[in-house]
Amino acid sequence: MGQAPPGGGNPARGRGRRGGVIPAMLEHVACPHCNAPNLKGEVMCFACGQPLGKRPRARPEMPVVPWVLWLGAVFGLVAFGLFAFSASQWVARYRQQMGIPDARMFALAGILAVAGQVALYWSRREDHAWWELKRAPELPLAQAQSGDAVWIRGAVKCETPLAMPYAGEACVYYRLVVQERDYRGRWRTTERDTKAVDFAVAEEAGSIYVPSGGVLFDAPPYVNSFLADGTRIQVWAIVLETPLSVCGRVDGDGKERIFSRLSAAVPAVATWRLAADYLAELARRSRLLQWGGWAASLAAALVLIATLARE
Question: For residue 187, what is the enclosing H or E element?
């Protein structure tokens, strides 16, 4: 009788169909989710995509903050606290000297708080619009596919244009503001009008149709004049054959292409500026609204503290 192999193991164990030893890298493990056979070294199941085992989570290193930043933050908080205390004390003394009732102070605080929140809300909307417009690339119309959000620049075309007020120029959009001076010397708006028609933007690769209903227009000032009776007339307009940058989502293929809204909250944009200049202007407006919102909220808090203060 033959002797058993060393270790008392089975001589057939670990051999393949042709008698060779199966390498360790070809050993299989069953997926705990779908029981599909996977190689031993795999991390994700090839059948269901679930993890085969828990991977050790790497512990992120804590960032080291320099002591100068900590000192600057503490100094900034102390300075802000002293400023807020001094401002609230000044408002309290002014209220007592002028004899302003508490009801008016509470109303002023409420108005400032609402104005600050409205400004912050519009700042967030401007930020969202800037993010949507920033993602859209500047492409020729021939490279834009259906469903893409892109910037297109070309000449303005329209078969049924509008007549610009007080100028008579053919345009696709205008905004009119007429103001008169009152007896106090302040400007009072007496007429305001805005109109737009559908148009097309043409370039070398073709043209694209732009419905005016879902477009946010950014037009340059075209008329700014004063009449003899002290009336001021201002007109912003987009005239025919002028270069125009349009950003929107392309719908349709071939020659029948139109621009639609970027999203439910962001309309298409038609501006006389370059795309980079319009994005910079949008970011500037967002920052101004943000700073104005925080300033109004801080003023509301100071007014409320001064109203509640008692000597």
Answer: strand 187-196
